């Protein structure tokens, strides 16, 4: 009885071994089989994909540059209209300039619809920066006529917030620095009308503005800031000269008037 059990158990143990041996032969056959061809794209297709991607990016960049130029053009129109600012029609002039500013804000909204995320804004920032800076120049010029003060960064950011675009400190600074040239031209026009009070107010504003910019020590990365500050300094000097000439001429006119009045009085006595 024990012998029979031993033989049967041996047979039971040998059967899995035989089965395992058959599986090993199958594995060898699968290993030696021909490789199945993969459906990977050709390595040359990467250039076609890159071309399609770059074409899309180029079209978007061209659209943004075109819109930025339109914004620049509209902002310049606002500045030109403010250069002819008539204090007797102050309400009408400011209302017209405000409407023009709101129109430009809507144009910025169209740009924002093209940029789907903040990284894309920074990617195309160089293409739309001229429009942003020109808009801030016109907005700061309008703000000066409204309040006689400088448009702050927070106020500028509030103007840009409805557009969905991000205002960087660099764009703000480079935009409002151009205000000096526009104020100098406005002061020159006012000087031809002998509006000493207007010229004096512009002169004091520019002097304070230039003094505050001296606190900034830009690195080589912002050489444009240094150039714009030099232009601002030249504008300050020109407006100071206007104030000087108007003051001297005013004193001369007063002296001539007093002399003429004295001569007339003396002639009456004779």
From TrEMBL:
Listed InterPro entries: Translin_C (IPR016069), Translin_fam (IPR002848), Translin_N (IPR016068), Translin_sf (IPR036081)
Biased composition (Polar residues): 1-16
GO MF terms held by the record: sequence-specific DNA binding
Pfam families reported in the protein's UniProt record: Translin
Region (Disordered) location: 1-29
Gene Ontology cellular-component annotations: cytoplasm; nucleus
CDD domains referenced in this protein's UniProt entry, alphabetically: TRAX (cd14820)
Record key words, sorted: Cytoplasm, Nucleus
Record keyword Nucleus present: yes
Domain of life the protein comes from: Eukaryota
Subcellular localization(s) per the UniProt record: Cytoplasm; Nucleus
Family assignment from sequence similarity: Belongs to the translin family.
Protein name: Translin
